[in-house]
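Morning run. Coffee first, then this:
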Amino acid sequence: MELNLNVAQEKMLELMQKIGQNRYLQAIMRGMMLVLPATIMSSIATLLKVFPVASYQEFLELHNLVQFFDIPINFTNNFLAVIVTFSVSYTLAKSFDIDGFTAGLISMISFFILTPYTLGEMGPLGQAFSIPNQWLGSMGLFTGILVAIISTRIFVAITKKGLIIRMPDSVPEFISKSFSSLIPGIVILSMFTVISATITMNGLGSIHSIIYEIIQAPLTSLGSGIGSVILVSIIAQTLWFFGLHGHAITLGIVAPIWFAMDAAQLAAYSSGAATPNITGFAFFMTYTAGDLLPLAFMLAFIAKSQRFRTLGKLSFAPAIFTIGEPMAYGVPLVMNFALAIPYILLNSVTLGAAYYLTVAGVLPAVAGVATPAGMPIIVSGFMQGSWKIAAFQFISLFVRFAGWYFFFKVADRIAVAEEKTEEEQNQELENAEFATADGDSVK
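And here it is:
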């Protein structure tokens, strides 16, 4: 049977679109994007805490200031699972047109119900208790996501079925929302209390440890290898080639794994311990940053095609800030087979080189710092804790330039030929119109 490549491509694109539009993957990705201010704050505090200048570190030690940098770190990066539980639940509930705040609040309380704690002695203000932060950060991230999804789906189901307390329209909205959330809130919190009690009574430890050992640790091991990272890169760029937002689709799948790895990485880096990972979200973004900057340079300063030169001047500044859409749809890179090879594969080359140089000890591991979207290349390298990473980014620009050059010249010749043909056709049309006008005037 002859394989119809067009049909196969269409089926594959449909599948990728369905994955990219999956409600739960979108909720996870958007929920994690919502906590970006917290992760950036943690990253800034970490960089200020460990800034590698001897006189600066002596100043911090002399005035006992290090402890104050730990405050934002503890309540952002080391509190990440709690924050993500709320944000994922919030975005998921909003996708069902349900009140996101109440759903997020119930999910966050459910997370704490499942989290083990220890009781202290009875004091004048009541019995003290403490929650170990082991499960509040990166190690509890998968539990938080699962709790958010389960809790929110139950909340949505009960609300959609109308099993809520409805108040008259004359009652203020905030009071009405409080009463409408009573029944789903009691059901959800009771369910998680029973789950927590059952696990504890049977000596199974906690749901956190179970999920971490069965789900999070194996997925982290699977997703942390350079093979997985390169596969994600190739799939993402291939999807971009076909006109889909490749990063939104692929990173949405691996985001829980890579964000958890980054949180663990940043926690170790801020405490001065050995960093546990090489790859992760920060690794991927750091070593794929500036991927289209060399192409923008060629378009602006080397291209012979007038269209390419104009596009290059317009896209060069955005490319500095890692924005490549003007070239993706302007060159275009989408469905442009002349540029397909470097577009799809060059990121894999830099990722692979960075990984093996890190393994060899030439490059330090990235710190796991969350950088804002649009952070220029080289600056993002310094933010990962070392000038060596920034230097590698700079060198990688020349590697990318070499990788793009041959294919760019081919595309440029094609564009010049197209412009020449178009110009000749326009000239012929003008001559024909002139001849017609001249003939009319003679008559």
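Residues 387-442 form the longest helix (56 residues). Good start to the day.
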